[in-house]
Specification:
mainly alpha
Length: 317
């Protein structure tokens, strides 16, 4: 069981028990004593229950748990729930976030199966081509072809193929990977809709993005501006990132028309989600044709440099 899956199952079990009006300690004890759940989750629940019973804050216990690793965003939201007393809705948000991360990771692995299979197949063909005489004695497959030239040609063609495949896979990872900007706006939107001011919502968004990241710094500057009394548009203009500014501008116009600025970040997150789904659809549509073309170029390179010269010499003779 992966750590992410463990976080998901633990959060789901805890949420279901909290919904039954049990105390946090009671819910953790039940999870810890259940024989249905995985041992790692039971150990985690027992550790957290003992910590809570001894007076440790739940967020602090989650931070130091040795059995399941919870990220900073998860810990920050648990800390928020302690301040607001809204544990149930917070667990609901965290469960949805964990499910999204797990499903996104699974879809990414699925998308990588075809490219990696093609690379492996081309590698096998290259090895078979170079060592055909050793693998199939007497086949005379490379008869008339200089083996040193063949090795150099196949190596060059394969490395070129691998270079372009790597570029396509990197693009695939970029479009299929987790969109932290979407997660940041979603987290900020959840907090702002639950009574947290925009400055704190921006701070949480920067935690999701990584405080030292490019977009994280934008949200930190916005937080500082909001704390100094600036409006949202002015605060985000200090970040100097056109992508974020554009999303904020469009959402602000809509928020001003509807008069509901609490859902501003959620509206931006929704637009980012639609944009991501559209980009992923295009990316998945182009992956297979791209690798078919790259494989064709690889085969064509070998044919032009090795096979055609031999065939031409045979015809002339």
């Amino acid at each position: 069981m992966t750590n992410l899956h463990g976080v998901r199952i633990f959060t789901q079990n805890l949420k279901e028990l909290i919904e039954e009006k049990l105390t946090l300690y009671q819910a953790l004890k039940i999870i810890g004593s259940s024989r249905v759940t995985d041992k790692k989750i039971r150990n985690c629940a027992e550790y957290l229950a003992d910590s809570v019973e001894n007076g440790t804050a739940f967020s602090s216990a989650v931070r130091t748990c040795p059995y399941i690793t919870f990220d900073n965003v998860y810990i920050s939201f648990i800390s928020f729930s302690e301040e607001s007393g809204n544990l149930n809705e917070t667990l609901d948000f965290l469960l949805d976030r964990t499910i999204r991360k797990e499903e996104n990771r699974n879809s990414l692995f699925s998308a990588l199966v075809y490219p990696l299979f093609v690379v492996f197949l081309v590698l096998c063909v290259s090895v078979l081509f170079l060592f055909s005489d050793e693998i199939f004695p007497g086949s005379m497959f490379l008869l008339g072809i200089d083996k040193r030239k063949a090795a150099k040609t196949v190596f060059f063609c394969f490395m070129t193929f691998l270079f372009f495949c790597s570029a396509v896979i990197i693009l695939l990872l970029h479009f299929m990977g987790e969109d932290r900007l979407y997660e940041a706006f979603l987290a900020g939107g959840f907090l702002s809709c639950n009574g947290i001011n925009m400055a704190q919502a921006c701070n949480m968004a920067s935690v999701v993005l990584g405080i030292d990241s490019k977009f994280g710094k934008v949200f930190q500057k916005a937080r500082e501006g909001l704390e100094y009394g600036m409006d949202l548009r002015t605060a985000f203009s200090r970040g100097n990132d056109l992508k974020v500014q554009k999303k904020i501008e469009l959402a602000l116009l809509l928020a001003e028309e509807t008069g509901n600025k609490n859902k501003l970040f959620l509206k931006i997150a929704d637009s980012l989600k639609k944009e991501n789904e559209r980009n992923r659809k295009y990316c998945l549509t182009l992956v297979e044709p791209a690798f078919i073309v790259l494989t064709g170029i690889f085969v064509l390179g070998i044919v032009i440099n090795l096979v055609l010269p031999v065939v031409s010499d045979s015809v002339i003779m």
